[in-house]
Design a protein that fits this description.
Chain A: Keywords: 4Fe-4S, ATP-binding, Cytoplasm, Hydrolase, Iron, Iron-sulfur, Metal-binding, Nucleotide-binding. Chain A: Residues 81-105 are annotated as: Disordered. Chain A: Residues 88-105 have a biased composition (Polar residues). The complex is a heterodimer. By secondary structure, chain A is α/β, with parallel strands linked by helices. Chain A has helices spanning 21-34, 51-54, 86-90, 102-106, 133-145, 165-177, 195-211, 241-248, 261-269, 300-304, 310-329, and strands at 6-13, 39-43, 63-65, 68-70, 72-75, 78-80, 108-110, 113-117, 152-158, 184-191, 215-220, 225-226, 233-234, 253-256, 280-281, 284-285. In chain A, the strands form five sheets. Chain A has an eight-stranded mixed sheet with strand order 5-8-2-9-1-10-11-14, with helices on both faces. Chain A has a two-stranded antiparallel ribbon with strand order 3-4. Chain A has a two-stranded antiparallel ribbon with strand order 6-7. Chain B contains eleven helices and eleven strands. Chain B has a single domain (65-328), classed as 3-Layer(aba) Sandwich (Rossmann fold), CATH 3.40.50.300. The termini of chain B are far apart. Chain B is an alpha/beta fold. The longest helix of chain B has 17 residues, at 225-241. Chain B has helices at 51-56, 64-71, 90-102, 121-125, 168-181, 200-209, 225-241, 273-281, 293-300, 305-308, 313-328; strands at 75-82, 109-113, 133-135, 138-140, 142-145, 148-151, 187-193, 216-221, 245-256, 263-264, 285-291. Classes of the chains: A alpha/beta, B alpha/beta. The interface between A and B is large, with 80 and 82 residues.
Chain lengths: 330, 340
Amino acid sequence: MPLENIRHIVLVLSGKGGVGKSSITTQLALALSLQGKSVGVLDIDLTGPSIPRFFGIEESRVKQAPGGWIPVEVHREQTLPRARQANGDASTQTSEVNGSTQDQEQGTHIGALSCMSLGFILPNRGDAVIWRGPKKTAMVRQFLTDVLWPELDFLLVDTPPGTSDEHISLLETLLKTTAHTSQLAGAVVVTTPQAIAISDVKKELNFCAKTGVRVLGVVENMAGFVCPNCSECCNVFSKGGGEVMARDFAVPFLGSVPIDPAFVMLVEEGVRPRYPKGTVVGGTALVEREEGGEDREGLLVDKYRECSLAPVFEGFVGRLVGDIEGRDGA
Amino acid sequence: MAPSLEEPVQVDLNAPLKAAPKLVAPEPEHCPGPESEQAGVADNCAGCPNQKICAAAPKGPDPDIPVITERLASVRHKILVLSGKGGVGKSTFSTMLSHAFASNPSLTVGLMDTDICGPSIPKMMGVEEETIHVSAEGWEPVWVSENLGVMSVQFMLPGRDDAVIWRGAKKNGLIKKFLMEVRWGDMDVLVVDTPPGTSDEHLSVNSFLKSSGVNGAVLVSTPQEVSLLDVRKEIDFCRKAKIPILGIVENMSGFVCPGCKHESQIFRASTGGAKRLAADEKIPFLGAVPLDPRIGMACDFGESFLDAYPESPACKAIRHVVRRVAEEIGMQGDVLEGEE
């Protein structure tokens, strides 16, 4: 079985479109990789695949091997040099603030990351995929059975909005093929705080309940935007709705993710995230914006470490891994 | 079995419409589609339990199409609101467009929600709790005001949060019913809101409405490339399906901080935004609507943003876009008369 190399499968779901499923999937994958896990990302949004764009590998193509498709590699297992800290490199005299010197020597061990998406098969990025249900079903099945994943700790499955063909086929196939229950670990449900999005996402939670998929947690995305000019936080799409919904449905709430224009810049243009002087998120000072040009060098995962959202996702992933692997042992 | 890396084959958009036969088993993987010319006779049909049914199905055009055309004969303008990407504001824009047209008391406006799995129109219109009344003449749309009627799957669900776990064929059936059974009546504009993507709902709406004539599609996008990427696919879809494109609207472009009035590009247009895309693809650019948190709030409470904040820059931008849409579909005079 092609899925037998995979220890845990996590679905990323949302009833609503554009709430950031792909963005959350991307960041979960990067955060897992930063914790040394080997990660695969499968994009089953057939009519609007965004994963290739998020990982900056739009030009890549899937290779064919006897017996299946080889997913596109984002980065290999390796050790990154220690991340730059706000007060460390920018001003050397405060280097003692950074704590133990051991961390500086060791660097970060990251796990391999690879992706599979219909975007890697289309001849032209502007081409529409105009398919009715049965063809989508066939493609989803093929993605689940014909991709030669390497040994993976986690496979994240990014889905299109809704509760239709792709979702039904995905779950039918997974429920049939996954050997033990802990392999299909469950679903992370993404929402934004507005009532409109919440009402669609509630449908998705009911979908999970009906199909027997465990909800690992709800993530509230786009909760607040910190104005880069005056550092005032403004709730563009209101706030708090995700938490209330999670409580109503008695599922875990993982947390809120604010809008960070630096992350958008990182994804859109590959610019290393930089923040106005003195920006502090969750107690950690962020790397200051410097004079001069924008830095585009380095791996996505390396640059992501300096994004304000990285610690947020580190927390999410910590909880998810603890939850999933905790059940493994039991 | 080694998978092939062939270029994906598209659905035949020019196939004549036929009634889908009643199947005894789900459509198999490489099914040519029960509506297609090859139904029941293609190579893939060998061994399929549906083969006989498909082969025996009448091969003429769908007999329901004339019924739909008859029903919609009294609807003068039909506008589709499309976007490849989800959450860019299709439904929000559809409600704004409908409210703006309906602010002119001499126009009658309909709004049809074809997003079956994630219907948001009823909530945005503040009619979430309504249900459909069925009379001898058909289903009555839910009237938001004197001259604004709405139809959505949400009105038929027993529970507000119930998931609609349907495959494509079933969704198509409901959309057909919306067009065939609903008493749209004498109407000036019918706005059709769609789900994200280029799949069943879009193909169905297009094929059902083809013979009654659609004025065209308004594409909605946000400024980032991630969103434009999907909108490009939608443009490709419109061209292939021969749907005229009325133009493209850029939503959520720029955000003015309520604290310091500093404008930030939350969704940065790193590749020139929708304006550049419109120029590249040679389609009209209808305007840009700034991101205003009050729009989302108004939608959450089911109120019309245009009525609540008529002086806001976002409202002015929306009015401008609506005027441009009216121009594009050739409505005479100023449709938003009595304003400004």
